[in-house]
């Protein structure tokens, strides 16, 4: 169902008053995790003013260690939704459990399936049944074929509102957190009609690489970007090393939009 041989025209995923894949560069930004009311309201305002299209923020954090900050959970989701609403931005957040899908849909505009759950087939089926737009991240060590098959589980439930997000894969290289697979972007653009966006934050794990890799993804044909931004990266409770400051994000938004108008 995801193949371009089945459907030749590109899928446009529709959200409140915007869409992904319709020709504009769709930029999603926000903190790795919602850490409190003040930080997310302030950040939402700054991101809206610089022309970001959607707010992101994790509240159920699937951390590698169970001893690391696990997110503010439902309380965080209500705060996130309030912050997005206060500036009129749609919001995406990760859902990690089948039983949470229905309730998360009441607060978010799009459901994120994280890398660690890309092959959680029960969860994929459930988000498929919700009919809600889904942001499907690439699995930690998944091939493009496996990733497209994961999308197929969602499409099979009659939900065609799926966006693929390249977030880097695990390789032998340890200088960066993951290896951002730039090949995946043009490859997917020819294999599938679904929109493809890039997450250079998890794709590199280093803030100084986020802007150049974002621009490479735009040049390669990405329909959008998802970038982690924190008001004070040094103090972030998760992924501070790869988070941009709002100032750095503002400069990236301008460069990415300029470049996009040329490709
Ligand atoms: C995220 O975007 O919040 C996240 C946890 O990323 P990933 O699932 O790609 O590791
Ligand atoms: Mn993160």
From TrEMBL:
A single GO BP term for this record reads: aromatic amino acid family biosynthetic process
Q: Does the keyword Transferase apply?
A: yes
Q: Molecular function (GO) terms listed?
A: aldehyde-lyase activity; transferase activity
One Pfam family in the UniProt entry: DAHP_synth_1
Write the protein's name.
3-deoxy-D-arabinoheptulosonate-7-phosphate synthase
Per the record, the domain of life is: Bacteria
Q: What are the protein's UniProt keywords?
A: Transferase
InterPro entries per the UniProt record, alphabetical: Aldolase_TIM, Class-I_DAHP_synthase, DAHP1/KDSA, DAHP_syn_2
Transferase keyword on record = yes
What SUPFAM superfamilies has UniProt attached to this entry? Aldolase
Range of residues in the leader sequence = none
The UniProt record lists the DAHP synthetase I/KDSA domain at 13-258
């Amino acid at each position: 169902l995801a193949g371009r041989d089945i459907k030749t025209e590109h899928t446009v995923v529709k959200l409140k008053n915007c869409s992904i894949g319709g020709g504009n560069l769709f930029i999603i930004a926000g903190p790795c995790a919602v850490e409190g009311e003040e930080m997310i309201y302030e950040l939402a305002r700054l991101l809206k003013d610089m022309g970001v299209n959607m707010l992101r923020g994790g509240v159920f954090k699937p951390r590698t260690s169970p001893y690391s900050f696990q997110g503010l959970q439902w309380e965080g989701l209500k705060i996130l939704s309030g912050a997005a609403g206060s500036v009129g931005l749609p919001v995406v957040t990760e859902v990690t459990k089948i039983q949470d899908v229905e309730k998360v849909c009441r607060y978010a505009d799009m459901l994120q399936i994280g890398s660690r759950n890309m092959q959680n087939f029960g969860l994929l089926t459930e988000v498929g049944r919700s009919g809600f737009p889904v942001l499907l991240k690439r699995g930690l060590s998944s091939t493009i074929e496996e990733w497209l098959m994961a999308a197929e589980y969602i499409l099979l439930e009659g939900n065609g509102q799926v966006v693929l997000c390249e977030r880097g894969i695990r390789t032998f290289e340890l200088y960066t957190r993951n290896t951002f697979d730039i090949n995946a972007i043009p490859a997917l653009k020819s294999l599938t009609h679904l929109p493809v966006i890039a997450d250079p934050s998890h794709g590199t794990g280093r803030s100084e690489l986020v802007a150049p890799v974002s621009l490479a993804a735009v040049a390669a044909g990405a329909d959008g970007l998802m970038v982690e931004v924190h008001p004070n990266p040094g103090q972030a409770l998760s992924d501070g090393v790869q988070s941009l400051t709002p100032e750095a994000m503002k400069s990236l938004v301008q460069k990415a939009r300029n470049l996009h108008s040329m490709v």
